[in-house]
Design a protein that fits this description.
With 66 residues, the chain is mainly α. It has a domain at 16-58. It has one helix at residues 2-60.
Length: 66
């Protein structure tokens, strides 16, 4: 009976270690995803600003026959 309890305790310790590692990995992925989302938002803003600048440049350009 004592050996069965020791075996269960060992299995529990391994499972807890695995859960802790998965939790760390999940948190790291969550941080990376948040950083990527922020970067995408920055790029979207830059793209929007560049699109507006290009639109203004096209409007200010003289017609092709000049």
């Amino acid at each position: 009976m004592d050996q069965a309890i020791v075996d269960l305790q060992e299995r529990l310790a391994h499972q807890e270690a695995a859960i802790d590692e998965l939790t760390r990995q999940s948190l790291a992925q969550d941080e990376r995803i948040a950083a990527l989302i922020r970067r995408i938002e920055q790029l979207e803003t830059q793209l929007r600003e560049l699109s507006e600048q290009v639109g203004e440049a096209v409007e200010d350009a003289p017609p092709p026959h000049y």
